[in-house]
Specification:
The chain is mainly alpha-helical. The chain has helices at about 10-15, 15-45, 50-85, 90-95, 110-125, 130-140, 145-150, 155-170, 180-195, 205-215, 215-225, 230-250, 255-260, 265-270. The longest helix has about 30 residues, at about 50-85. The protein is elongated and about 75 Å long. The protein starts with 10 loop residues before the first helix and ends with a helix.
C-alpha cells in the first residue's frame, strides 16, 4: 500500500494550519474591533461627544480594521481551497491498485490531520508498525462527527478512549519506521471502499470509524458489550453524512459545532 502524507496535495493545508488558524482568529477579532470603533464613530456625530480630530481617528481605525478583516477573509478562503484540493484520480483506480497510488490523496482534511497526529505520536513513542488502535485513538480526539456517532450509539466515548490509551501504553516499543500495521492498512483500504460505496471520492471521519468497527478487535468487542452491530454504526455514519449534506446544501449560517451544541441534530434523532 502506497501512503505518504507529505507527498499528497493536502499536505500544504496540514503544514500551514496553525498560521491560518491565527488568521481566522484575527478575522473575528478585527471584525469585532471594526464594529466597536465604527459605532463610536457614528456616536461621535452627536454634538459635543467628540472633537473633529477624534472623529478622524475613529474613522481611520475603523477603515483599517475593515480592510484587515476583508484580507483575512480572502486568506481564509485560500486555506479552505488548500483543505479541499481536487483529487487527480478516481477512487476506484486506487481500490484496484493500492500500490500504484498515494492513498493519502483520498483523505479529507480531518482524516489527514488525525493520521498525521498518529504518525507523530508513534514516532515520539517509538511504536512501529503504526497500529490501528493509535489511529482510532486520534480519530476519536474531540471530533464533532465522532461525538455524534458515539453519543447516539451510547458507546461511551471517554471510557472507550481510556481503554484505547491503556492498550497503547502496553504496546511493545520498537525503533520507529513509518509503516502501517496489517490492520491499519486494512482499515485504510476498507475506508476507501466505504467512501466509494457512498459515492464519495474522499475518505471522511465516519468512513474510518465504520471501517474500524469492522476490523479493530477492541472496537468490535465494545460493540458486543453495548449490544450493537456493525450495521448500527453504518446507520449512524449514514445519518451523519445525510445531515452534513443538508447543512452544506442549505448553506446555513450556523456552524456544525453550534448545531450539535444547540441540539438541532438531536431533534432529528428523536423525530
Amino acid at each position: 500500500m502506497e501512503f505518504n502524507l507529505k507527498k499528497s496535495r493536502i499536505w500544504q493545508a496540514l503544514k500551514w494550519e496553525r498560521v491560518f488558524n491565527f488568521i481566522i482568529f484575527s478575522k473575528k477579532l478585527f471584525f469585532v474591533l471594526f464594529i466597536i470603533v465604527f459605532l463610536l464613530f457614528l456616536y461621535a456625530f452627536i454634538p459635543q461627544n467628540f472633537n473633529t480630530e477624534t472623529q478622524k481617528l475613529l474613522l481611520g481605525l475603523s477603515t483599517i480594521f475593515l480592510f484587515i478583516t476583508i484580507g483575512s477573509l480572502y486568506k481564509e478562503r485560500f486555506f479552505n481551497n488548500l483543505k479541499n484540493p481536487k483529487v487527480k484520480y478516481m477512487i476506484e483506480q486506487a481500490i484496484l491498485n493500492p500500490d500504484q497510488y498515494n492513498l493519502a490523496e483520498f483523505l479529507n482534511f480531518e482524516v489527514a490531520k488525525s493520521i498525521w497526529k498518529t504518525i507523530k505520536f508513534c514516532k515520539k513513542k517509538n511504536i512501529s508498525p503504526i497500529p490501528s488502535e493509535v489511529l482510532l485513538y486520534f480519530l476519536l480526539d474531540k471530533k464533532e462527527q465522532t461525538n455524534f456517532i458515539f453519543s447516539r450509539g451510547l458507546l461511551g466515548l471517554d471510557e472507550f478512549r481510556k481503554e484505547l490509551k491503556a492498550h497503547i501504553n502496553n504496546i511493545k516499543k520498537e525503533q520507529f519506521k513509518q509503516v502501517f500495521s496489517f490492520d491499519s492498512e486494512k482499515v485504510i483500504l476498507n475506508s476507501l471502499k466505504i467512501a466509494q460505496k457512498k459515492g464519495r471520492n474522499r475518505i471522511k471521519i465516519q468512513d474510518i470509524i465504520l471501517s474500524q468497527s469492522q476490523i479493530n478487535e477492541i472496537f468490535k468487542k465494545k460493540l458486543i458489550e453495548k449490544d450493537l452491530k456493525q450495521e448500527d454504526i453504518e446507520y449512524l455514519a449514514d445519518w451523519l453524512s445525510s445531515l452534513e449534506k443538508k447543512i452544506l446544501d442549505g448553506k446555513k449560517w450556523w456552524s456544525w459545532k453550534n448545531l450539535i451544541k444547540k441540539g438541532s441534530l438531536a431533534k432529528e434523532w428523536t423525530s
